[in-house]
């Protein structure tokens, strides 16, 4: 698999340098750490009774007064982004974006249910209690009750932010800080008709069921478990499997998949795998008429309207294929859609919509719903296009083995996009870069699209919290280089991670897809490999020749940031004693630790102490580049040859275990900065202007209240029943 919406926006906690070392992840923690790191995804009656107040008037503030940061709670910050250039679009393009916007949000419930079988019921419970809790907080003079109400609010916002009760990044379950007694009082104080009760269920029965689901941290403790030696299916709380073991799943697909097929479909991508009462293993597809049908029917409706106003014949064909796929559940049609989508290069408006990334499945088969609606930023695209146009040169000059190189790199489309709305696994926490499709054979034969989400990166820049660089960078020279070049370095890392990283190399004939061969280590190896491509070329004079960097100080800035993040600052996201499980964090630590260890003899990277604090200083950037090249060669070999043991050794040796002393120090130093390590966004709102039943224009609004937007979405886009 190609994990290419790679949410690793390491968001410049210290500079606001938004660009990130590669791109499919939401901001992490150290510099454009690269972008995250320094700057740090008809049945509405079930929730209609929540009786939430109308959303406040949205702002359309002038650009100079636009407020990016709206609030901070727990380990999260809520931001807003602007959509420059929207007003200049043609009316047909705005209408197209509106239909794609509605299609995106129509699938919102799916993400909750995929993440955990109880999530929709939990969310609807919290929403049913929201108003009563606000009234208690506003009317009470009892400080203890106000404190309980505030803690309830924080929990509800965390559930909205993470699309469920498990942390959006660590996937560990979080629980409310308010008491069970306070929660029960709220439940008993509202009209029972507003609660998501099962038929015939009493309030007492409801509380007996829902209370441990919400308050017991040991019940379904991890949404995605990646711990070696455990049954990753049975110990993961996601809703992708029922009554199955890891071995049963692996055996099922071992019999089903033909490894000699040069164009395999993405087995398991759009279905739940279950064992029925007779013991038979069956797939339940997510499609019209299947699981999630009420939501998917809405998605199909809006995609159909979008196809009617498509910009080009190629775009119309792609949208029609997507509708056909959702209607049939046929994964061959999904491949046909992806091929059509890759060949739609002339349209300015674009959309990602579907079951795409497999990070939520520890075995890498099943994909989470997501959508990103956008249009091309014509001016900003020039930088990323310059890299994409030279993809063959980068492939030919890579340090990987000749037999692992593509002889003919085809169809790479690279652009910077302006995001209009995101949904599902892409919101509120968002990627900053995308490279799709994920099917290796489609990428090889037809190419891929690589994008950077330009206005999202800009919002991270504007929201920079400050402090991280001064706290964790060793020297004034390092800090100055980061301030001068860090933003560009992070953006370039994202560009190259997506454009030439994921798109590079090929599997040896007869080797299965990485989800078959590398299994639970596939995502971390793939993201590490793409990072290494970017890191290797960031210090190449070719970038100066292309005119995308003024000098190689840009590459040094990214090396500083990447090592700082991989060895130290990203640990701020873990509680003391935890190991690294998230794929992007594993990949960054693996790359940084491996380079540190292999270069220790020559002190390429040196661990130093200053004023009682630990730092990692790079002494030789050229030798570090050479080390990155060596590791790139090895990760490409592992991928191309399907070497499971090689992948396991790399990740388990360098990517999982945490130095407890360093970890404790990082947490102590980080706590003083009062910076939330994760961020996500309130989405813009599109409002159609209709005349005689036809959309003649679309207005753009910028909501300002996260909770109100979540309540508004639940009123408008709750299409699924409580249990699916």
Automatic annotation (TrEMBL):
Signal peptide per UniProt: 1-23
Entry-linked PROSITE patterns: PROKAR_LIPOPROTEIN
Pfam families with a match to the protein in the record: Peptidase_M49 (PF03571)
MF GO annotations: hydrolase activity; metal ion binding
Domain of life: Bacteria
Record's keyword terms, sorted: Hydrolase, Metal-binding, Signal
Designated name of the protein: Dihydrofolate reductase
The species this protein was found in: Hymenobacter oligotrophus
């Amino acid at each position: 698999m190609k994990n290419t919406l790679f949410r690793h926006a390491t968001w410049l906690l210290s500079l606001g340098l938004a660009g990130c070392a590669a791109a499919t992840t939401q901001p992490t923690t150290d510099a454009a750490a690269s972008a995250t790191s320094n700057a740090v995804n008809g049945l509405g009656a079930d929730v209609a009774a929540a009786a939430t107040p109308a959303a406040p008037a949205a702002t359309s503030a002038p650009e100079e007064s636009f407020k990016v940061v709206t609030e901070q709670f727990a380990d999260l910050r809520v931001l807003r982004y602007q959509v420059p250039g929207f007003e200049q679009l043609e009316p047909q393009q705005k209408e197209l974006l509106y239909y794609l916007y509605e299609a995106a949000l129509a699938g919102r419930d799916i993400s909750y249910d995929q993440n955990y079988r109880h999530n929709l019921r939990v969310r609807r419970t919290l929403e049913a209690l929201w108003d009563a809790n606000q009234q208690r907080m506003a009317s009470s003079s009892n400080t203890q009750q106000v404190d309980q109400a505030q803690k309830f609010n924080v929990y509800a916002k965390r559930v909205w932010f993470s699309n469920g009760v498990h942390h959006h990044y660590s996937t560990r379950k979080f629980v409310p800080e308010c008491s069970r007694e306070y929660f029960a009082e709220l439940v008993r104080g509202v009209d029972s008709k507003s609660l998501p009760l099962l038929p015939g269920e009493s309030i007492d029965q409801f509380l007996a069921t829902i209370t441990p689901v919400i308050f017991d941290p040991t019940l379904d403790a991890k949404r995605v478990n990646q711990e070696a030696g455990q049954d990753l299916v049975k110990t993961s709380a996601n809703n992708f499997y029922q009554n199955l073991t890891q071995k049963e799943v692996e055996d099922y697909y071992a019999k089903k998949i033909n490894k000699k097929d040069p164009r395999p479909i993405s087995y398991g991508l759009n279905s739940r795998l279950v064992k029925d009462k007779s013991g038979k293993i069956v797939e339940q597809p997510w499609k019209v008429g299947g699981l999630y049908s009420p939501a998917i029917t809405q998605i199909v409706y809006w995609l159909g309207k979008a196809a009617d106003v498509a910009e080009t014949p190629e775009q119309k064909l792609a949208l029609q294929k997507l509708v056909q796929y959702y209607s049939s559940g046929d994964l061959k049609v999904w491949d046909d859609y992806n091929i059509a989508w890759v060949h739609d290069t002339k349209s300015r408006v674009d959309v990602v919509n579907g079951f795409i990334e497999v990070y939520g499945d520890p075995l890498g088969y099943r994909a989470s719903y997501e959508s990103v609606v956008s249009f091309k930023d014509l001016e900003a695209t020039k930088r990323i296009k310059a890299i994409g146009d030279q993809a063959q040169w980068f492939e030919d000059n890579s340090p990987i083995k000749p037999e692992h190189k593509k002889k003919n790199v085809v169809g790479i489309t690279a652009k910077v996009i302006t995001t209009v709305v995101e949904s599902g696994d892409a919101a509120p926490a968002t990627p900053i870069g995308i490279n799709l499709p994920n099917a290796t054979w489609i990428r090889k034969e037809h190419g891929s699209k690589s994008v950077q989400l330009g206005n999202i990166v800009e919002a991270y820049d504007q929201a920079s919290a400050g402090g991280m660089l001064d706290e964790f960078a060793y020297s004034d020279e390092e800090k100055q280089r980061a301030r001068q070049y860090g933003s560009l370095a992070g953006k370039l890392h994202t560009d190259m991670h997506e454009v030439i990283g994921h798109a590079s190399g090929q599997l040896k004939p007869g080797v299965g897809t990485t989800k078959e061969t590398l299994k639970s280590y596939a995502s971390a190896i793939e993201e590490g490999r793409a990072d290494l491509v970017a890191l290797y070329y960031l210090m190449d004079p070719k970038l100066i020749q292309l005119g995308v960097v003024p000098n190689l100080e840009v590459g040094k800035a990214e090396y500083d940031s990447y090592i700082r993040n991989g060895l130290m600052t990203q640990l701020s996201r873990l509680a003391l004693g935890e190991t690294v499980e998230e794929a992007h964090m594993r990949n960054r630590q693996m790359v940084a630790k491996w380079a540190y260890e292999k270069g220790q003899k020559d002190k390429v990277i040196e661990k130093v102490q200053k004023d009682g604090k630990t730092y990692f200083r790079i002494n030789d950037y050229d030798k570090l580049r050479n080390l990155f090249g060596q590791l790139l060669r090895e990760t490409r070999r592992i991928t191309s040859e399907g070497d499971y043991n090689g992948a396991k050794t790399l990740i388990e040796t360098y990517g999982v275990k945490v130095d407890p002393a360093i970890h404790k120090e990082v947490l102590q130093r980080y706590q003083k900065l009062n910076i939330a390590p994760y961020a996500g966004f309130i989405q813009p709102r599109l409002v159609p202007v209709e005349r005689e039943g036809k959309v003649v224009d679309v207005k753009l609004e910028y909501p300002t209240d996260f909770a109100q937007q979540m309540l508004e979405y639940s009123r408008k886009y709750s299409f699924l029943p409580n249990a699916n």
